[in-house]
Amino acid sequence: MYETHLSNRARLLISCPDQPGIVAAVSQYLQEQQANIVQSDQYSTDPEGGTFFMRIEFNLPSFEERFPRILQGFASIADSFQMSWRLEQERKRKKMAVFVSKEDHCLLELLWRWRSGELEVDIPVVISNHDHLRDIVESYGIAFRHIPVTKETKLQAEQQQKEVIDSYDIDFIVLARYMQILSPSFVKSFQHKVINIHHSFLPAFIGANPYQKAFDRGVKLIGATAHYITDDLDEGPIIDQEVLRVNHRYGAKDLKVAGRNVEKIALARAVDWHIQDKILVYENKTIIFN
Amino acid sequence: MYETHLSNRARLLISCPDQPGIVAAVSQYLQEQQANIVQSDQYSTDPEGGTFFMRIEFNLPSFEERFPRILQGFASIADSFQMSWRLEQERKRKKMAVFVSKEDHCLLELLWRWRSGELEVDIPVVISNHDHLRDIVESYGIAFRHIPVTKETKLQAEQQQKEVIDSYDIDFIVLARYMQILSPSFVKSFQHKVINIHHSFLPAFIGANPYQKAFDRGVKLIGATAHYITDDLDEGPIIDQEVLRVNHRYGAKDLKVAGRNVEKIALARAVDWHIQDKILVYENKTIIFN
Amino acid sequence: MYETHLSNRARLLISCPDQPGIVAAVSQYLQEQQANIVQSDQYSTDPEGGTFFMRIEFNLPSFEERFPRILQGFASIADSFQMSWRLEQERKRKKMAVFVSKEDHCLLELLWRWRSGELEVDIPVVISNHDHLRDIVESYGIAFRHIPVTKETKLQAEQQQKEVIDSYDIDFIVLARYMQILSPSFVKSFQHKVINIHHSFLPAFIGANPYQKAFDRGVKLIGATAHYITDDLDEGPIIDQEVLRVNHRYGAKDLKVAGRNVEKIALARAVDWHIQDKILVYENKTIIFN
Amino acid sequence: MYETHLSNRARLLISCPDQPGIVAAVSQYLQEQQANIVQSDQYSTDPEGGTFFMRIEFNLPSFEERFPRILQGFASIADSFQMSWRLEQERKRKKMAVFVSKEDHCLLELLWRWRSGELEVDIPVVISNHDHLRDIVESYGIAFRHIPVTKETKLQAEQQQKEVIDSYDIDFIVLARYMQILSPSFVKSFQHKVINIHHSFLPAFIGANPYQKAFDRGVKLIGATAHYITDDLDEGPIIDQEVLRVNHRYGAKDLKVAGRNVEKIALARAVDWHIQDKILVYENKTIIFN
Q1: CB of B261 within 8 Å of any CB in chain D?
Q2: Looking at CA atoms only, how far is residue B201 from chain D in angstroms?
Q3: What is the structure's pLDDT at B188?
Q4: Residue C3 pLDDT more than 50?
Q5: Considering only Cβ atoms within 10 Å of each terminal Cβ, which end of chain D, N or C, has fewer?
């Protein structure tokens, strides 16, 4: 790819104590650096003394020359407002690893959206505790690593997973119906960098077998929830949810089959937002600028 | 209204142990009675030894003469298949009482759909533990009874409510955001005859203040659940559920305001199905033939 | 109401040729005026030479003193960027007139949302070509004007309507299932200030009897479209659309009854956005900042 | 597969002039043949003199012996009520051919649902006017036939297509974003046996480039329509429709990308209903018994 085709788009994400003047200071600075703001969103938990969040997309001509300068120069503004911040370049695609077990619907949805160009991400590797999906993954030209997990070998397995992740320089992980619970230390290493799909409308039906529980309760809508993983099972910040109408004719197995279609939609949307840096996490919630 | 305008439509609802021959026996019998079946639905929990449910709508010429005969004659078929059954006449509109507190959105939705002819029901009386909604109710030509409820007077109040309900010959009760919990004995007297609207997507956020809980959890969809009341709070058979997409900009109060619009939709739909005898209750679930 | 309770919130809406520096200039200016930006949205049809749109909400302490200054001072910035712009104060509620014929569902939805505080607007008057809805309107403490319309008297009737509108200092008009077509001169006087609800999913089923047409075509979803009125019937900028799933059991009349519930939802949402100055019109489309 | 695992389920589809006694006669007959009705649906365009439609699912013990008898014996009942009818066996899976061009999303959705067991159908062959999707199709173990189509060779190409279809004993065809218009004679040979997905919410945006048209009109929802092909382009009986909310930020290309996700859902659902014999066509509409 020639440099002239590279995107000149960057994204600035900020959070800080709210106070007057933030928008003016940031936009003034970007203007001085010749950046052209093409989108900006902001949210404040409370205009009087709350936390302020902002996401700015800008185009930057002469990107290669100016981007490092902005990265350096912004630090002083950030300091004066006590900002947490990060600056992302669209031309630098994120690297995503997918963890799967045996079910393929979420994986295939991600792979299809990736190949069609809908997900602007790199997928160097898929990791699985089973060998079932090797062929399909490799047919997409993606490395497949089979790392079996048992109760006894769990920590060793996670060590292997981490090595694979490091070796591919992975930015974030997607659990595409990966049926294993990750250890607290693993979760800690990847805070707000592991997206899971839970097959229920959280907080209903936390834990195992949500479709059976939904059947037993006789609900009229089933759902799926994409969320960041935290130590509390199924309690992490919710990114997206989707539902589907069902009726008394659906047995537990039918709910499971129908549910696949909402699982993959909710997960794909959440992954897309993560890729485009549209998600900010605040306490145990997400702010989605889309 | 002249008799010639009265509906000749009737509805037969059946549940019994499943076995071959039920549909044939029932439809044969109705055919012999000159009834013309215009709709029929059935469901079996398990074709091999489960429970069988059926709802049949039929037109019956010379209704006044033949209907009592069918009512009488069907008993022997019902006995031979061990059926629970009921036979409803469309011309005999159900009588519905509405219980409210101070919030009016569910009540007004029901009143509007009633006046527009969408809900084919009579509403002789609205009962409230507050006097706030008297004027609006009376402007619809409906009696309004203010029966205050305190912890101490609860059982007396329920006694008064029952007297009002008896005096109006009420068939079923709708709790349109009625903020009181009914006593077990009251619930028992009206089994599967009290419809409540809970302001969450059950079983998420059972109990008080669901919108605050939804806000605290950071959900991306809020919901409402219409269900029959049982002794277990918010655990009765679900009739209908509806959801609405929300985002981080919604505070707890905004969720409450937005939620009204799904509450009233789910409740109105559930009431309509009840009126049209489209709901069969099986264990703690509903079968909706619509 | 005491001054201290008045809102200090204002909204600035801008459109202009896109170029670098707009956001910086505007936010810098507001910052100098002590305004605290609490929300800002922007959109550009094309970052290279397109049209730029922005909506900013800000809080302004000492509102009464400073607001007129901003109003005056902003003109020079606006000039330098060739902006079309307007500045709205939340404390100055818009005045809305509703036009109706005989059907009441859209009117009642608006009145209920108005009384519940969901629509922050004043409704001084309802105008109708029939006298049917007088009682209900007057029960809300709103003036009702019956102005009959026939082919022959149409222009005179519109003249009377304009006088009523002027006398109440109306800001915008909502056609809540008003079954008359407005003349080009009337439409011209209220450009982007008349919101209509069309009872189909435009551009499907333009013109009269859309539910009959939807029935004839056998569609599986019906819809409603809220849009600004222009001279081309049903061709004005679309503000919002909503749909509802139907099936073969719905006759044309059932579609009409069911459709009311999407009509009122789409219309109420569009009106709410208009009230909050969330809509910018660009050519024949709307930009909704919500 | 051993015979003992074969399904004993059959489906009877009927349409005839409405008159009393149809349900009784049919269910009586099935009862005599030892069939156990597990589901039945019916619909009448008008109980007084309209057309009557029925779909019955039944289990039949000793299937191999009794099914041919039913097939033969039912003819006399059918005659007496002037029925059009067909009797389908679940154990005899339909054979489906898929026509594609270059876009793969609808094809892949069908293939995935087929492999996961969600679509109970056989897919012996995929036919395309391009060679692009050969590898992916063959990786599923399905034959791929490349039959180029030009204006000049269209009829010859259709002749080839028919030969392939005959050679695989195909029951129905799915146009999964096949960008060619079929000739009247081809359509005639496969009446109500060719399902197409049109990438708009019909009847809006008939013909080519619907996403561009949707963009130009500024709609707030985009849609997709699955329908049977008839000679009138995009005018055939609608089977299913699905929509997706969009906003001003979607360019024509974004609409196209987003639209893929509703196209594949609507198409997959329509195909599933066709496979399960849930669709009856009446004039230019469908009756869906689901």
Answers
A1: no
A2: 22
A3: 93
A4: no
A5: N
